[in-house]
Specification:
By secondary structure, the protein is of the alpha/beta class. The protein contains 10 helices and 7 strands. The protein has one domain: 3-Layer(aba) Sandwich (Rossmann fold). Helix 2 packs antiparallel against helix 8 and helix 3 runs parallel beside helix 4. The radius of gyration is 17 Å and the shape is globular. Bound molecules: S-adenosylmethionine (SAM).
């Protein structure tokens, strides 16, 4: 298979990637046939997927504005993905020109596109790193000098923790990041869940596993556990219970399986 000019050297064009499948669901053009094929199979199981992803993006935009309205001007977005419409730095800079944003992703396509987009944006940067190694993320953020970890930071872990298996102890990873944040920092998180669509969720987990990307749905108590050490602001809710998302989900909030949440470190 030919490597398109925008694709970084060395990436595996025969294996689907979570970042590129998400780009496909959002109508982007930075995906390969292998991603679209896996994406189409996922859509057969859960045709609402693009709407769920759009609701997730609406949550990010609102949560960034919510954090900015409380005076937070620093954003650390881990698992930031391939840039799309309404990126975190655009929303944050609109809210406050003093904003600073560091994106982190382990996917080379997501990082390359973020670098290209941010070439002329001194207030934002991207780091290629893995959520499984929070110490490395924190030290690279400190070295970069864009964020001051002694002041409040909005930590975004949006639609990324479901790619971390229980064996990697995702709760400990989040706790390590939380402990490095100053009081007044904010956790912005979303996570897929089997709670409201158990049958389709099990099939989606299987599909991702076959595509070579572990996908772990979690229950509401498991998602709430990520907020240990944070006070609800406003706390965890179904994705369709957030803001205007109810309209997109119609009269059944459980149609969009998954949770969003925002908490603040006291
Ligand atoms: C579904 S996308 C979400 C993008 C964005 N946060 C959003 O919600 O619109 C998940 C992203 O997390 C990234 N990701 C998955 N596991 C990761 C890990 N262990 N470390 C860093 N990034 C990861 C993927 O590469 C992908 O870009």
């Amino acid at each position: 298979m030919d490597r398109p000019t925008w694709a970084p050297q060395g990436i595996d064009l025969t294996r689907a990637s979570a970042a590129r499948m998400y780009d496909f669901f959002l109508g982007g053009s930075h995906n390969f046939e292998v991603d679209r094929e896996a994406g189409r199979r996922a859509l057969e199981i859960l045709p609402d997927l693009p709407k769920i992803m759009q609701a997730n993006r609406a949550f990010i935009r609102d949560a960034v504005r919510h954090a900015a309205a409380s005076g937070v001007t620093q954003f650390l977005d881990i698992g930031s993905g391939i840039p799309t419409f309404g990126n975190v730095h655009e929303i944050a800079l609109e809210a406050s020109p003093d904003s600073r944003v560091v994106y982190v992703d382990h996917d080379p396509v997501a990082v390359a596109h973020s670098q290209a987009l941010l070439a002329d944006v001194p207030q934002a940067d991207v780091v290629e790193a893995d959520l499984l190694r929070p110490k490395e993320i924190l030290s690279r953020v400190q070295e970069g000098g864009l964020l001051d970890l002694d002041r409040p930071v909005a930590l975004l872990l949006v639609a990324v923790l479901h790619f971390v298996e229980e064996s990697a102890d995702p709760y400990a990873l989040v706790a390590e990041l939380r402990d490095a944040l100053a009081p007044g920092s904010v956790l912005v998180l979303s996570h897929a869940s089997q709670d409201t669509r158990p049958e389709e969720s099990a099939r989606i987990e299987e599909l991702y596993a076959r595509a070579g990307t572990p996908f772990v749905m979690r229950t509401r108590p498991q998602v709430e556990r990520f907020f240990e050490g944070f006070t609800p602001d406003p706390g965890v809710m179904l994705i369709a219970e957030w803001g205007d998302n109810a309209q997109a989900a119609g009269d059944d909030p459980g149609r969009f399986s998954g949770y969003v949440g925002v908490g603040r470190k006291p």
